[in-house]
Amino acid sequence: MKRASGEPALEGPIVGYALAEERLEKLCRAQGIGLSCLFKDDQSALTAPLSERPGLVAALKELALLGASGLLVSSFAQLGGRLAWAAVAEVVERQGAALFSLRERVPADEASLDATLGDAKAAFADHPRLVRAVEIRAGQGRRSRAGKRISRHLPYGYRLGEDGDSLVEVPEELSVLERMKALRARGLSYQRVAATLDAEGLPTRKGKPWASSSVRQILRREAEKERGR
Asked: Which domain holds residue 128?
């Protein structure tokens, strides 16, 4: 495993980032590396601006929340090449961490080699947007931990308070949420969890049958909230 600067040391919490088809967890297990958490983007994200990759933005935000020592990727190609790597490396270093790859070493002074001027401008033009995206996600995390609304979509288990900003618990929904967690902990698929909730007479917020996608989304948001505490 190599750091961007060429130093192989990596201690403390580690955040992983991968595209969907990558087997980063398997590679880490083979090398005895324990990830604190792993974020993913679809393969199509490889061609998207860095600031528009939700998995990458979330991973960078998590670095600060965990006080992690590094962001680990299986290859710098996962970030879209050397120029994208250089932009991400700068954001990572702002979090007091380092960017690592399992497969190769790329010295900092190689970032601009064999790159066209147009490519360089395109990569670094997105850099401020990437920083801003991370700051926005971090701000949302702080509001969430303070029990404040962060979007027009209210999280399952809560309703809007009288002040129009605070979140108030809905006991009935929180009970259903705990049931979801328990079923997933038993190894049930999202589809099986949805079917079980329907069979137990536990409808959605709108009184409709559960869909596996809704269960997945609710549990994913709950996991993100737990990580941000």
From this structure: 2-142
pTM higher than the cut 0.85: no
Q: CB under 8 Å, gap of 24 or more: what pairs does 116-125 form?
A: 119/83, 120/83, 122/83, 123/80, 123/83, 123/84, 123/86, 123/87, 124/83, 124/86, 124/87
Please report whether residue 158 resides in a domain. Answer: no
Q: Are residues 12 and 122 in the same domain?
A: yes
Average pLDDT by consecutive 10-residue portion of the chain (229 residues)?
Answer: 45 74 74 81 80 84 77 80 76 80 56 38 52 53 50 71 70 91 91 94 89 88 65
- Identify the residue whose tokens are 């909730």: 197
Angle between helices 190-199 and 212-227 (to 10 degrees): 110
- Compute the distance between CA of residue 62 and CA of residue 201 in angstroms, rounded to an integer: 37
* CB of 41 closer than 8 Å to CB of 20: yes
Number of domain units in the chain: 2
